[in-house]
Design brief:
DNA-binding, homodimer, Rossmann fold, 6-stranded mixed beta sheet, alpha/beta
DNA sequence: CTGAAAGCGCTTACAG
DNA sequence: CTGAAAGCGCTTACAG
């Protein structure tokens, strides 16, 4: 590959002049240099430029699982903004593992200008380490305990959980179960809290055997739904706290030939491309996905502009939205559980 | 950030010695150096190492759409192998655009050690340019006309298309339609060819108005299915050539309240995570996904080993597999179309 | 085993 | 406007 020296020699100037020309400065021998560049098919070495400038022009993106449609959409959103800049994305998957995340982050620090991260747990310490290294960091989807000093694009998970709970209550359910995500994760914890809040506010209790915690993966949704259905008194409604667990739960219900929503109502968190096409079409709490990724990337790129570099952390909290489809309905035989009474809001379909 | 000079100064040795120690060579002042490294939290600059070695240790991955579950799975497969190496992945989305692909590739050439690409069209010239630049290139999912000199991990698309056609024929269908993918793409062309081959071999003709070509996106599947259903004599069965278009077709059929498979059978290409949960569960031609990505990455990494660097191109062609679910069935009122006769293989459900 | 020196391919004050 | 020189942070023959 040709270097700037080769081009300079050919054009009869010094490397410095070629460099200046390439960066848009006025030079006398512009045509000669351009010709040399063309003939030799010269492209500056990004590595040499990086060493010189201290900038890599790459953004590290660390997500738990790229095959989760939510994260795929988020990454697409990020890509849609970098595509108009001269930044590129370096992608890493952590499989929800903190160790893996530590390893990834440690080596990214020296290779990227900034990082967008969906941390594996709220307790992660590595992000502090990243900040100390002077690498701008933005959280997406998930937060850190005490992470207020970092930029973040999140969703109002508590409200989302509440929406799910209130929806089931409004249909008249009182025997309600939750399949929550990892509790050391912002969305896992908050969605459950919001959900329980809604029930509590309505005087509906959620017994421990209905209050299950999974790990955001399909398999755990499957297993927990199975265990729920094998209870002596199974719930009449289930809230599942992410797309993958909802799919797992749906599979379990199908395997058991459960009638949805006849025997049991199911509400999920995060819509799916196939949501309306499923058996039955899924009622879900939806939220922006591609937009979340785009916003996170914009937040990060701002940090590279001197005027914003030292701004206070920006925390963007987006709203969730209930999408009612056919997987939820009033319970078939409304029971008057002791103390629960008529908790519904009177809305019927 | 500490540099190797800082560490050397602190340990009382020369930078060269620190460098040797770091690379595992025996040195006298090992402990002193290790201590300095720890205290200063020193990590070598990847950029400086790259400039020196000429290797970036990053792999460029270029796909048309990361939110297509097939490509998400492929990327995950790649990640599962790089994770055990010291290579990382730089990801780019092309949105099926050749121009975008050209741009991405052009700048990747100077930044990565190798590239895995699912080319936007079979006519792409850029890959030749990549090869001329001395950057190893592996195709995944899609091939290039005259691309035999490149490593590739593909699938037997022709056979897959044939399987789809034979399945519909075996059910007794004779009024059959195809929604194909871009015809300047390997999978788009081959799947259609295989499909048509199967019909032709059985003496079944596919009229032009049933032989539709889309662009692998959901919207085109939707529109084309719509147009198929509005025909005076709509088909009794549709083959849709990828996951997204199948979803689109399914949506169209739902919107028209079409009974599947009663009025119309639908068979897709590429399974979905939600495949069994859809209304109705989808019959599809399936193929390995994660494995395809992993294999492509292994092929590429081999090129970095001297012993294999100059081997002939390795072309891995994987097999497809029919998964029969509930979206296909015999046509409701088998017509004896002139010349078609009983083309079924006699199998009935 | 170790250090001084050169070099990887750029960019940018510093003089002119 | 332009060139020589120094420097970005490493690594590696070359002597010793």
């Amino acid at each position: 590959m040709a270097t700037i020296h080769d081009v300079a020699a050919r054009a009869g100037v010094s490397p410095a002049t070629v460099s200046r020309f390439l960066r848009g400065q006025r030079v006398r021998s512009a045509e000669a240099i351009q010709a040399a560049v063309d003939e030799m098919d010269y492209w500056p070495s990004a590595t040499a430029q990086s060493l010189q400038s201290g900038r890599t022009h790459t953004i590290g993106v660390v997500v738990p699982d790229i095959t989760n449609p939510y994260f795929a959409a988020v990454v697409k959103g990020m890509e849609s903004v970098t595509r108009h800049t001269d930044y590129r994305i370096q992608l890493a998957n952590t499989d929800e593992s903190s160790e893996r995340e530590d390893a990834v982050l440690a080596e990214m620090i020296r290779r990227v200008d900034g990082i967008i991260l969906a941390p594996a747990t709220e307790q992660d310490q590595t992000p502090m380490y990243v900040r100390d290294a002077g690498v701008p960091l933005v959280f997406v989807d998930r937060d850190l305990l005490g992470g207020e000093h970092f930029d973040a694009v999140l969703v109002n998970n508590t409200k989302g959980g509440r929406q799910a709970g209130e929806h089931l209550l409004s249909l008249g359910h009182t025997r309600i179960a939750a399949i929550s995500g990892s509790q050391d994760t912002t969305p896992g914890r908050c969605r459950r809290e919001g959900f329980v809040q809604a029930l509590t506010a309505a005087g509906v209790e959620i017994p421990p055997e209905h209050d299950l915690v999974g790990d955001f993966r399909e398999e755990s949704g499957y297993q927990l739904a199975l265990s729920l259905l094998s209870l002596p008194e199974p719930p009449t409604a289930i809230f599942s706290a992410n797309n993958l667990m909802t799919l797992g739960a749906l599979k379990a219900l199908h395997d058991l030939r459960t009638d949805i929503p006849g025997e049991i109502s199911l509400i999920g968190f995060d819509d799916l491309d196939t949501g309306p096409l499923l058996r039955p079409p899924l009622t879900v709490v939806d939220r922006p996905m591609v937009e979340q990724g785009a916003l996170a990337m914009r937040l990060l790129l701002r940090r590279f502009e001197d005027q914003y570099a030292n701004d206070d952390a920006r925390r963007i909290i987006l709203d969730t939205k209930l999408i009612e489809r056919a997987s939820t309905a009033p319970p078939r035989k409304p029971r008057t559980a002791a103390g629960a009474g008529r908790t519904g809001r009177g809305r019927q379909r």
